[in-house]
Amino acid sequence: MLKGNPEIGVYNRELPKGCELCRVGGKLVVFVTGECGDSCYYCPVSENRFGKDILYANEKQTNDVLDLIYEAYRMGANGAGITGGDPIVRLDRVIEIITKLKAEFGDDFHIHLYTSGRYINQDSLEELQRSGLDEIRFHPINKEYLVYVEKALKYSMDVGIEVPAIPGEERYLDFIVKWAENHGIKFVNINELEITERNASRLNSMGLRVSHGLAGSNKSSDMALSLLKNNKDCRINLHYCSSVYKDVVETRTRFLRTIKYSSKPYEEFTGEGTIIKAIVKSNMDLSQFGELENEKYTISYSVAKELLKQGKVDEVKVIEELPYGLRISESVESKSK
Ligand code: SF4
Fold this sequence. Notes:
The protein is an alpha/beta fold. The chain has ten helices and 19 strands. The chain starts with a strand and ends with a strand.
């Protein structure tokens, strides 16, 4: 029997551990480098990131691995997902990150990593195992890449496969599921194909359009769901993850979690995981309600509205921002309104 919700995700047995933690917004997203030795036509990585050797802790670009620890504390993370590009291109950095995260948060801090497998060999697998990697997810871009997946089976980390559901590739995906079952792979994750600015023209030329959430392609989720249905009795874990889930639910849950763990007392939040606060100028001492900077107070929007109603301030600047500081909107409310 299949479990879950087609809008979010469906699975036949159990969710992979990395996905379980992602569902509660508990995974720090480590984009370790945009470099990759492959050039998949459907690659969803943005132009700003692909091919560039840049590091992100969630949405924040950084040069310092210690920032990952700071960000993990900020969101109360109980694990991390290491992605790219192909992280194995920067294996030393990956090992440093895993080692530091494990040293700071302990062995139970669950870390999974994505790779096409192209650069995987015995040495890299040994180093990954020594560092404490819990789960490795391969994206075999063709059958020849399965040899890398097989190599990882000798190690203690969980081995999974993660592939996009590309309409037209039904037979390949069905082959992958059967291959994974016969080789004792722990899980196969099938992602809804995402149409992004970078891959849109190629995917559009194949008749694929965004029809689901922000980037989900038409036909992709139907294809993934029928693959799961046909293989529901498979002995390994099969899981379909929708792009709506990744773009909306995972991100929003992670934002709400960050707000819970590190927002300031005067910051209010919306169900979308954004922060609302207000800036006012006043001769009164409002320091009990917030913070003073450049002769203006940042306070809660509710308090600011009340002060405006009572005529104690002339206007209120309302700020909405994401929990990592990106401002989304700004508006002014004044006495006359
Ligand atoms: S392996 Fe992954 S990151 Fe590299 S090109 Fe393909 S989809 Fe993009």
